[in-house]
Design brief:
Layout lengths: L11 H27 L26 E5 L2 E4 H14 L6 H27 L6 H16 L4 H9 L4 H21 L8 H13 L4 E11 L5 H16 L4 H8 L10 E5 L6 H8 L6 E7 L2 E12 L9 E9 L7 H16 L7 H7 L3 E8 L5 H8 L10 E3 L3 E11 L9 H27 L2 E3 L1
Antiparallel strand pairs: 1-2, 1-11, 3-4, 3-6, 5-6, 7-8, 7-10, 9-10
Helix pairs in contact: 1-5, 2-3, 3-6, 4-6, 7-14
Protein name: Parvulin-like PPIase
Pfam family, one: SurA_N
InterPro entries: OMP_Chaperone_SurA, PPIase_dom_sf, PPIase_PpiC, SurA_N, Trigger_fact/SurA_dom_sf
């Protein structure tokens, strides 16, 4: 899960409202419990025999450990709190069957996290509590502004806890410390290797490259049916609004799992044939899969597309005026249609951007000017705006609830062709790829040497 985007969901406000409601409910429950403890007690009101016999072996007040990793206990509560973070990132509840499957994967990840924290301590580079708190405060400030304490309420409200998020932060810091000590110093990329990559990029100037997100699941002949079913369930959840980044971090067995499955920009010839064929037909934002590639099954999403070493029109800076009108609550469909028609006619009569305020005032419209990059706008608007001439406007868009608006193009500064990545950029990217692969082997060694008991 991307910690810096904890509340990036469109449903953040409703989730936050839920958090506050749960907090209020918790206070009420506590007051009721206190009242019950001070009131007269009379068990005979329930006709309970004085000599009772408990049936069964389960005590609901005892939580047994879900796993023990070299003596460290991972409880069901630990798993539930971490699953709650994934569910919140996926903007909804998961079906029971999916929830149980996610819990098993989260448990495996918690085991890895525990191994990483233990190994950092064994190598005498433990994570200090102050480091964790500092990072926690940073995440809170990024998402909740001047009142970081709101994040505590948010986490509790979604069924998680501050302790769970702090534990995840501790694991990430511990793992980074281990990589810096045990792997990074031994990874070297020569200038010659970097120059070869730069030359290949120059030879490919103007051709397409694709930024792809992946969830890779290893499969053998024996495990293929189960892995395929798992992949199909993941796709189903993603199509229902699940977070690709969250599922990639929890389920993907690729080295890109730690960055939410993001492969970065790649040329198609560097990908397996099946991925090449799918990517050529995809539009940004489109999800494909599951389908087979050597070694397993993959789910992929096309995040972006551009031409190598060429300026991207979407990086153009656009000077825009937004002209918008709102409608009263409960407006009828007929009134809304008439209002849109009047608004469209008025916009069409504007003689360029200099006329926007005057015409807008005549129909009660708000006019706001701003400069933005085309890339920062919704994808549906990008192509439309980039094809406009100065003084032209988009088609109206909106709804009775949100109002109707157009964007009028008042100026455009096209991006210049950049010099492309430097030798240092290429070297850094190659080093990162090798570090991730070596880190995977390091983690496998930790698993092989560990004493892990599950219950």
């Amino acid at each position: 899960m991307n910690l810096s985007n904890l509340r990036g969901s469109p449903k953040y406000r409703s989730v936050m409202a839920l958090a506050l409601a749960v907090s209020a409910t918790g206070l009420s429950a506590g007051a009721s419990e206190l009242h019950a403890q001070t009131a007269p007690q009379n068990s005979n009101a329930f006709n309970i025999p004085s000599d009772i016999e408990l049936l069964g072996q389960n005590n609901p007040n005892v939580r047994t450990p879900t796993a023990v990793v070299n003596g460290s206990v991972i409880t069901g509560t630990d798993v539930d709190h971490r699953v709650a973070l994934l569910v919140a990132a996926s903007e909804g509840e998961l079906p029971e069957a999916e929830l149980q499957r996610v819990k098993m994967q989260v448990l495996r990840n918690l085991i890895d996290e525990t191994l990483q924290i233990q190994e950092a301590a064994a190598q005498e580079i433990p994570v200090e509590g102050a480091q964790v708190q500092q990072r926690y405060n940073q995440v809170a400030a990024q998402n909740f502004g001047s009142d970081p304490g709101q994040m505590d309420q948010y986490l509790i409200g979604i069924g998680s806890s501050p302790a769970s998020l702090k534990r995840q932060i501790e694991g990430e810091i511990a793992w980074n410390n281990l990589i810096r000590r045990n792997i990074s110093p031994f990874i070297n990329v020569s200038d010659e290797e970097a120059r070869e990559v730069l030359q290949r990029m120059e030879d490919s100037r103007g051709t397409d490259e694709y930024r792809i997100g992946e969830i890779f699941l290893r499969a053998t002949t024996e495990t293929y049916p189960a892995v395929l079913e798992n992949a199909q369930q993941i796709v189903q959840q993603l199509r229902q609004g699940g977070s690709f980044i969250a599922y990639a971090r929890q389920f993907s067995e690729s080295s890109t799992a730690s960055v939410g499955g993001d492969l970065g920009f790649v040329r198609l010839e560097t990908l397996p044939t099946a991925m090449q064929a799918q990517a050529r037909e995809m539009q940004p934002g489109e999800l494909r899969g599951p389908f087979d590639i050597p070694g397993g099954i993959i789910i992929m999403v096309l995040l972006d597309k551009r031409q190598i070493l060429m300026a991207d029109p979407r990086d153009a800076t656009l000077s825009l005026k937004q002209i918008s009108v709102t409608f009263p609550a409960g407006v009828t469909e007929q009134a809304f249609t008439e209002g849109v028609n009047n608004f469209t006619t008025a916009v069409a009569s504007m003689r360029g951007c200099g006329d926007a305020e005057t015409v807008g005032a005549s129909i009660g419209a708000d006019v706001v000017a701003n400069q933005v990059t085309a890339r920062s706008l919704p994808e549906q608007l990008q192509a439309s705006l980039l094809n406009l001439q100065i003084g032209q406007a988009t088609q109206p868009f909106g709804s009775p609830e949100d109002g109707v608006r157009v964007l009028m193009l008042c100026g455009r500064d096209d991006p210049e062709v950049g010099g492309g990545p430097t030798l240092e950029d290429i070297r850094g990217r190659l080093e990162d790829e090798r570090i991730q692969k070596r880190a995977q082997r390091f983690l496998r060694d930790l698993r092989n040497d560990a004493y892990i008991e599950s219950s």
